[in-house]
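Sequence in, structure out. Go.
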Amino acid sequence: MKGAAPLLLAGGGLIWSAPLPALAQGMDGGPSLQLEAAGDERRRGLSWSDGAPVLKASASLPVGSALAFDIAATSLWGSGRHGGADAAIDVGARYARQVGAFRGQVLGGYHAFPGASGMGYGEIGGGIGYQFGPAALDLFARYAPDQSALGGDNLVLGSALSIGIPRTPLTLSAHLARSSGKSDDPARSRRLRPDGTYWDHGVALDYHRGRWSAGLRYADSSIDRDAAAHGGPRLIACIALEL
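Output:
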C-alpha cells in the first residue's frame, strides 16, 4: 500500500515526527530522501513551530528487508514550545516484519533541538497494522521514559485508519490518540502535555503523482485553549517531493 505511506507521515517527516506510525511503509527499496513544505508542524495535536510554516528534509536507509535507520530535520524558527529551538532533528531506527496481511514494528529514537539547551529526549514505541484491500488499520504506542527535559514521562496510545480511494491518486486517513504520563516538574511537563492527559485527532486527504505529493490535514485536540497556544483546530496544507 505504497500510496498510503505519506499519509501516515502526516504532520511530520518520519515515523518520529508523525502522529501515526509508518506501518504501511515497506523497507524493500533503497535509500530515500524527501523534501516537504507545510503550513504548520503538528505532532500529537500540538504545534511545534508556534503555528508557523516549516521546511523539512527526511531520509531513510534500509538495512536488509526489516531494519531501517531514519533521520529528519524540521525548521522551527525559535519554537517557544522547545526553548527557542531553531530546528528539530529526529534520529531513529525501526524494525518491521510482515506476516500475511499483518505488519508489526518496534522503534527507538531521539529528538534533538539545536538552538535550545536541555530540550532533547528519547522515546521507544511499536505497533501492529492490518491491511485489507486498499485500507489499513494501525494500533500504536510510544513511550518516553522519565526525563528531565519532559518533567516526567509520556505515553501515547492510538489508532489510525487509511484508505486509498479506488481509481484515484487520493488517500484518505484519520487518527485518534491519547497522551498521558506522570509529572515530576509541572512547568516542564506542560511542554508535551500542557493540559495533562488529553486526546488528539485528525483527518487527512493526500494526492500522489509520481514523486510528488500534496495534502490537506485537519488537526485538533481536547486541550483547553487557555492551557496552550496552537493546540486547537487547524487546517494544514503541505507539498512534498521524493528524490
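Check: Residues 1-26 have pLDDT under 50 and may be disordered. The radius of gyration is 17 Å.
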